[in-house]
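User: Here's a chain of 88 residues. Predict its fold as tokens.
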Amino acid sequence: TLAATLHPETLVLPCDVQHDAEIAAVFSHIQQAHGGLDFLVHGVAFASRDDLTGGFTQTSREGFRTALDISAYSLIALARGAQPLMQA
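Assistant: Prediction complete.
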């Protein structure tokens, strides 16, 4: 993976931000491996190919909901998981 080329011990974990259980598992693993967290960087964005290739007014309601959930709400969900690991 790209991470392994940067440093052989780089931690890479799967995390589908639409599933709270996967988010919890990631932060649990980080807690066990490192004991805490100093900061969180959110760089997640998604929209379906159909909604990106069609005209703006052709965006589906479901496509918009999915894009909003993954691109925006995921920041809240990830911050909720990270917060307990950032306690001083």
